[in-house]
Design brief:
44% of the residues lie in helices and 12% in strands. By secondary structure, it is an alpha/beta fold. The longest helix has 20 residues. The protein starts with 5 loop residues before the first helix and ends in a 10-residue tail after the last helix.
Length: 273
């Protein structure tokens, strides 16, 4: 571990870059990078950019705009068009590579105009997982200041809490395409159905969830502590998810597992082969 406190190490990692464009999703990681970068470099040398596409839940764009106003971030939203790329839409194991490549193609010109470096909220724990998107970002010259500062997810949350950032305990919110099993082509219709189902669950008070898409079947993952409450509100959940276009609604008793589809081979019914 490098010397200094977590904050000092992160400030130093960002300070060495001089000017940055932050890929700002509004999650705990990118929010910490955006806030510390703005504090260290000043808003004139930090541009926070939220990529808006069909794979981003509408609530997430609104959350980014709210945080930018609350924290005084220089912020903008840009549209990305991953679904126009057949390599992305076919949804193989390299989908995230093509997604991040598209993101970097949008952010790199902005960074060039700012004489800045693109930075992503990648933490040490992310390096232990299969993340082809990180490879695409690194190939395009992005920097990962959380990694350079030696911060894992727990350290990110602890530092965010110390700084009083309300994102410190925000549940992870991977892109909506991560709800679709590899091999099932990603379409606007599928992403819209997943977004509507998850919005319905949020409206019922479930903050962390995944609605996994298997054709007419939706497999809901919730934290184990929420399973009893889900059963108690079974009728409302069924109504919300069916209203999104699903014919069958299932609850996964194993609970919420981030990256579940990337780690298990599943057929169209949602069961392991």
């Amino acid at each position: 571990m490098k010397p200094g406190t977590a904050l000092e190490r992160l400030e130093a990692a960002i300070g060495r870059l001089g000017s940055v464009v932050v890929a700002f999703s509004g999650g705990a990681d990118s929010a910490l990078v955006a806030k510390v970068a703005t504090d260290v470099l000043g808003p004139n040398r930090v541009l926070c950019v939220t990529a808006v596409s069909a794979s981003l839940a509408p609530e997430e764009r609104s959350a980014c705009a709210e945080l930018a106003g609350e924290w005084g971030l220089r912020w903008m939203a840009v549209e990305t068009n991953q679904l126009d790329d057949p390599d992305y839409a076919r949804n193989d194991s390299d989908r995230c590579y093509h997604c991040k490549r598209e993101l970097m193609e949008v952010l790199s010109p902005l960074a060039a105009s700012e004489a800045a470096t693109v930075v992503l909220g990648v933490n040490l724990d992310d390096l232990d997982d299969v993340r082809p998107g990180q490879r695409a970002a690194a190939e395009a010259g992005a920097a990962f200041p959380l990694v350079e500062a030696g911060l894992d997810k727990d350290a990110v949350r602890a530092l965010s809490q110390t700084l009083g950032l309300r994102t410190w305990d925000k549940p992870a919110a991977a892109c909506l395409a991560s709800r679709v099993p590899h091999g099932t082509p990603v379409t606007f219709g599928i992403l819209g159905r997943v977004a509507a189902a998850e919005s319905g669950l949020r409206n019922l008070g479930f903050a962390a969830m995944r609605v996994r898409h298997y054709g007419e079947l939706a497999r809901i993952e919730l934290p184990v502590d929420d399973l009893v409450r889900a059963i108690e509100h079974r009728d409302e959940i069924v109504t919300a998810v069916r209203s999104a276009g699903y014919g069958y609604v299932t609850l996964d008793l194993e609970g919420l597992r981030s990256g579940n589809l990337a780690r298990s081979a599943l057929d169209a019914t949602g069961f392991k082969r």
